[in-house]
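Posted in: Protein Modeling Q&A

I'm a second-year student putting together a small comparison for a lab meeting, and my supervisor asked me to include a predicted structure for Glycosyl transferase. I've never done this before, so apologies if this is the wrong subforum. The sequence is pasted below exactly as I got it from our records. If anyone can share the structure token output, I'd also love a short note on what stands out.
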Amino acid sequence: MKTEIRCKSKVFPTRRAFAKRYIPVIQKFIYSHIIALAWMLISIFASMQWIKELGELITIPVAVMVIAGIAYIPGYMNAFMVSSLLFDRQPPVKVLNPTEEITILIACYNEEKSIENTLRYVAAQEYDGKLKTIVIDNNSSDRTADAARAAGEKFHLNVMVLHEPVPGKNNALNAALKYVDTKLLITLDADTLMHKSAVRYIVGRMMTSPSDVCAVAGTVLVRNSRKKLMAKIQEWDYFLGISSIKRLQGLFQGTLVAQGAFSLYKTEAVKEIGGWPDAIGEDIVLTWRLLSKKGRVYFEPLAVAFTDVPETLKHFFRQRSRWARGMIEALKVIKPWQHPFVFVRYLTGVNLIFPYLDIIYTFCWIPGLILAFFGCYWIVGPATLFVLPLAMIVNYILYRYQKNVFKTLELRIRKNILGFIVYTLTYQLLMSPISVWGYFQELFRLKRVWK
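Accepted answer (user: helix_wrangler)
Welcome! Here is the predicted structure, written out as tokens:
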């Protein structure tokens, strides 16, 4: 029932009623851009002296290019994201106890030590439908296949083990796709553990969604954050950064990556586009192909799985440079303007700007930060410190939403204060140079490595 306060002949909706008022997606899109544009105009006005001083050193046009890459465009994008998330009111999952039969595909390369635990969590799912599991041994040199069979028997699971001798995750998944006879399938990484309600929520979201939704990305979070600092930092990236970006993309019905670590797909839609492509970012290209065929991809925050992330800088470097390279691969295969929906054209088009931003950050911001320690405030100065309170406010808004997700799932957020501080202060210092290396790898077609 609508809550109202009546005053003579006028009717005023309360704040609670206003909060629940439906705003069409296109209006949210426009309003968020207006707010972001206003923020950027204020930033430009406030930076006129900065442009003048830096322009005396490197000319005004170059100064504008540098400052745009450091402040204007990132500020616009952050303002757009935060305002969009404040408008976000995701429809509830209506099908709470789906019974659709599901096939789970798990591609493995030398996962003898982890596959049993992964299958243990598959067996623990609170799901009323039948679950079939296909484990694909992708040319492993250990006893992955034997461990999978033993775990299947131990946990009374319907497990099929396949051998795919040709290396490559796409080859493993495509080999299994031939055996999938269910309408829906889930891809799951061999080191990823699903929350007990994960399958129920992700399938429920699919069953609740319009018929043109062909995939639903789950929420992937970090499970090994109690170990090294590198993992502690990434916990906040997954918890705040990646999850929030997926919420934003899901709001505009075009989640750009239904990640292979944990996502749900309509089997027929995957088969129609030829399965997983031969790409280092096979899940990115697959998702973009689904979007280009007028399919929509949603995101379900409550469908949570926990994965192991790199614990050393070396392995982190390899993973994130691979992600950056995968983005370029997707842009080469499907251009943003080729997508049928305006929201997806915008979301994929934003990726065209990332190389420019990462290059500016790597070769201008980071050297400017070093120069500031020696008293040269050409690019980074004392005023930069005012960015920190803004970053804290943004992260707090994102944190509040994620906290509600955890409360619903009866999970607790780990007290990882050190990881949060390092994440807030230094994460982009790592990410931009690593991404630039990924772009370089794709530009010169260097050797691709899956693991």
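A couple of things worth pointing out for your meeting: The chain has two domains: 23-48+59-87, 93-451. The two ends are 54 Å apart (CA to CA).
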